[in-house]
Amino acid sequence: MVRSPTNLVTAATRSFMDDTPEDHEAVQPVISQISFYPLSEFDRKMKTVDWSKLPHFPAPPSKGETKWVFPEKFFDQLPQIMKEVPPLPGEEWLYKMFQSVLNAAAKDPKIKETLTQTAIAAEKDLTGPLFQFHNNGRPIGNGWSSPPDGARWGVDYLSRAASARSNMYDNAPEETRYIYTDFDSTGERLNGAHAYTVTFKNGEIPPVNGFWSLTLYNEEHFFSPNPLNRYSLGTKNQVPEVRRRWIAYALCPERISGRGQRIKLVTSAQRRRLLSIHPGVLAQGSDLRRYVDTANRRKREKHGCANLAFR
User: Fold this and answer.
1) Cα gap 74→71, rounded to integer Å
2) Is 34 left (phi over 0), alpha (psi -120 to 50) or beta?
3) In the chain, what is the straight-line distance between the N-terminal and C-terminal CA atoms, in Å?
4) Taking burial as the number of CB atoms within 10 A of a residue's CB, which of 38, 89, 186, 205 is the most buried?
5) Cα-atom radius of gyration of the chain, to the nearest Å?
6) How far is CA 203 from CA 198, 199, 248, in A?
7) Residue 153 has what pLDDT?
8) What's the CA gap between 174 and 52, in Å, rounded?
């Protein structure tokens, strides 16, 4: 049962599977048991939905994410939002203060204009930079950052805004930890013209109870279309057992044939790439810095790639 203090609820369910055609088929009976319906329809019987029969509508071409917040209209829309989203315990005084400002703006055009210009400046100077991964969370070493209180921000409104701007839908920290980097070991921005190696020391692969993964994003935090239709590597990828000190996961701008192709990510060559590691539930009390080594850079003449190596 899901209880919500608001009329709007978003749920993102997750089922574990291997990245194989066989497991894509095998997981269907599992996800068919995942559905939402009003409590009034509860009859003590399992309800299923065949999600494989949903219609498919290709997404239209786009540049960047859909813009939902328009600073020029922010203070015009805020009163309705405050009515739809009740204050959390202890926030009542904030709502009263906001309302007093809105009441003053409704009577004085100069105050209203000041509010509008403030919203425009905040979009540019505050929420805009929060889109960058390195501004989301706290430094944990080697140029990586991680939000410590995802989905449980309390009164840390800045961290909440950073997650909403750069990586929406964080889980609670005891369930999932998200680790990001935008820069290599020299402090330079990750760039598709270079090759990178992210290293886990031997025997120190993230100790998870569920999964971990390495995901490559472009400068808009979107996946890059590629011939393999593969966008992350990690627990879900079946890696052949080998007798050597490390296994390399390659993230490359062109398809590479030969050994190990099944554990490669193929990307399109662009000016800049962002790397993000999303590990699952880490062992209690573990230090995140132990599991993420420096992202080292190696230049290539034509194409860049990033390699994840288990050492």
Assistant:
1) 5
2) beta
3) 44
4) 205
5) 23
6) 15, 11, 15
7) 87
8) 32
Give the position of tokens 């929406």: 168
Residue type, 258: G
Q: Are 133 and 276 in contact (CB under 8 A)?
A: yes
The Cα 220–Cα 212 span in angstroms is 22
| The two structure tokens encoding residue 26 | 């095998």
Name the packing angle between helices 92-107 and 109-122 (round to 10°).
120
Give CA–CA dist 149/248, Å, rounded.
32
Spell out the alpha helix ranges (H) of 123-200.
157-166
Domain spanning 133-310: CATH superfamily: Domain of unknown function DUF1214, C-terminal domain (2.60.120.600)
Determine the length of the chain. Answer: 311
pLDDT beneath 70: ranges in the chain: 192-205, 237-311
Exposed, middle or buried, 198 (CB in 10 Å: 0-12/13-18/19+)? buried
Residue 2 token pair: 């899901």
Spatial CA neighbour of 252 closest among 300, 213, 200: 300
For the chain, domain boundaries: 1-52, 71-127, 133-310
Q: From CA 122, how far away is CA 29, in angstroms rounded?
A: 47
Q: Which DSSP category does 173 fall into?
A: T
d(CA 191, CA 169): 26
* Residue 139 tokens, joined: 């430094």
Instruction: Read off the tokens for 53.
Output: 């029969």
pLDDT for position 2: 83
Label residues 275-310 b or e (16+ Cβ within 10 Å = b).
bbbbbbbbeeeeebeebbbbbbbeeeeeebbbbbbb
- What DSSP designation does 189 have? B
